[in-house]
Amino acid sequence: TQSTEWWKEAIVYQIYPASFLDSNSDGLGDLQGIISKLDYIKSVGANAVWLSPIFKSPQKDMGYDVADYREIHQPYGSIQDAEVLIQGCHERGIKVLFDLVVNHTSDQHPWFQESRSSRTSRTRDWYIWRNPKTDINGARKPPNNWASIFGGSAWTWDEATGQYYLSLFLPSQPDLNWPNEDMRRATYSDMEFWLDRGVDGFRIDSMNLMSKHPDLPDAPITRPDLEFQPGDLYFASGPRMHEYIKEMRTKVFDKYDCMTVGELGFTKDESSVSEYVARDRQELNMVFTGDIVDMDFGPDGKYQRNDFRVSRLRDITTRWQSAMPKFDGWNAVYLDNHDSGRSLSRYASDLPQHRDTAAKLLATYMGSLSGTLFLLQGQEIGMANASRDWGVESYIDVEGRNYYDSVLKQRGDGADMQDVLRELRLKSRDNGRLPMQWNGEENAGFTRGPKPWMRVNDDFKEWNVEKQEGRGDSVLAYWREVLMMRKKEKDVFTYGRYNMLDVARTGEHIFAYTMASVDGAKTALVILNFSDMEQIFDDAGYEGWTKLLGANATTKVGSSAVKLIPYEGVIFCNW
Ligand code: ISL
């Protein structure tokens, strides 16, 4: 049972296994590579890791297409390696979270192989099969007008049995049919397989897509320019969603001391989110709200230009920091994951003159908020997006490629694609998946083999772990300091009460808030300059407070103002 609440104090380090460290020189990261760096991870200050999928998979979507949840993707290692990894983590006081991908499987999964074998197969109903429709000319068309999240129709035609199956992501990622009880039971037993081997919890992939509207109705036409329409109104947070989570919880999670964090795309309003995380709902420990990753998406999609403004970060942060205590929910504090560009490059600055300060600014922001912290590998050394001069051929992720190709098709060969390339440079998933930069040697020390699976960023000689180790003023050293502060003053930060300072007072470019301990005895003042200009903060009312953290200049000017250099973050305190 969930008697302890260790998960509230978890500092989770997300590992992208393909890109962490290659121990056998085949160009791909692996479990032995991770095992060899557990001391490093601990030294950063993390006390938990989340591994993106490591299971048997044809890797059409980098492991988010699972072919067998009880086997390890062979190039990553074996079950024994996974057990050594779990044990190695536990010896160091590090909890282990696996990625639970059960909204869909790979089309190579035996369940799907059997399902597609005939209309009457045992597992036919474990996936979502429907008869075709016909258009006015009598031609076959999909059962509804939903667009796949990765482009094209959300339905894939299966010639052998003459039906379509639903595939909200790639055609090779068929959606599971959650109303089917046998399927659910099999899935729960897969979860137990790993919990019995010591896994401490799950990040639940595409969690709220599991329950769809039972009639799978056509989506309203919101994009007349497109053949297929965004269908999230009917495929996200469907009517049985909470029933499934409660069942998962009572049948599986409650039997273990484990933590759950659900990926909550599309569903963004406070009351819907509260239904997943309010304590008395007895569902999930926390969710990743999708609004953090969407801050610079356009109204019509991810790769549409929409320049970041700090007002969005201020609004989203304030919404969730204020909302969670109201219904006794809990925040997952994050900025980065493997599905987008680096927050440093998108929300702050990776320009040489600002990069170091800006990376520390984001650390100050994350480290000071209430909730469970999630950082993506490389964030602790200020890793950035791919160099600006990479051409489209260096981008390999299927989501970005599909988008680029669809626009090219629309515009015609030879068309100007600079605008799309600009968006890929900011938000492509490749950016979050670049090989980890360990040192200044060839391929950044990520692999000793001739060819990394994915291009190493050009900046690795300047930006790597080795270079920052032992330098007291490095981004890495700063993250360590932040996480130490966070642990020491957990009443103020992890469990603290957030209060935003009025923009009328701070000015548009500064994001400032206080964090107070629950007993009210201690208060910290966090001041973040999200601009490339010097800013003055009027500190009337906070005179005499002392600096708790801040790696940069912060000078006092006169008696009632603090001067911050571009992208500077600083914390003052009243104790
Ligand atoms: O489409 C979205 C909203 O704009 C996404 O946030 C969507 O919820 C997200 O892409 C789901 O991501 C997860 O599942 C995918 C996988 O490719 C991602 O890597 C994973 O994080 C399919 O399993």
Structure in words:
With 575 residues, this protein is α/β, with parallel strands linked by helices. It folds into 3 domains: 6-104 and 181-475, TIM Barrel (Alpha-Beta Barrel); 110-166, Oligo-1,6-glucosidase, Domain 2 (Oligo-1,6-glucosidase, domain 2, Alpha-Beta Complex), CATH 3.90.400.10; 498-573, Golgi alpha-mannosidase II (Immunoglobulin-like, Sandwich), CATH 2.60.40.1180. The protein contains 16 helices and 23 strands. The protein has helices spanning 31-35, 38-44, 79-91, 110-115, 181-195, 232-235, 241-251, 270-277, 310-326, 343-347, 355-368, 398-411, 418-427, 465-468, 475-488, 503-506; strands at residues 11-15, 48-51, 55-56, 68-72, 95-100, 129-130, 133-134, 140-141, 155-158, 163-166, 201-204, 259-264, 286-289, 332-334, 372-376, 497-500, 510-516, 523-529, 535-538, 546-549, 555-557, 561-564, 569-573. The strands form 6 sheets. An 8-stranded parallel β-sheet has the order 13-12-11-5-2-1-15-14, covered by helices on one side. It has a 5-stranded antiparallel β-sheet with strand order 16-17-18-23-20. It has a 3-stranded antiparallel β-sheet with strand order 6-10-9, with no helix packed on it. It is globular. The two termini are 38 Å apart. 50% of the residues are buried. The structure holds 6-O-alpha-D-glucopyranosyl-D-fructose (ISL). 6-O-alpha-D-glucopyranosyl-D-fructose (ISL) binds at residues 61, 64, 101, 149, 169, 205-206, 265, 290, 302, 338-339. 6-O-alpha-D-glucopyranosyl-D-fructose binds at residues 61, 64, 101, 149, 169, 205-206, 265, 290, 302, 338-339.
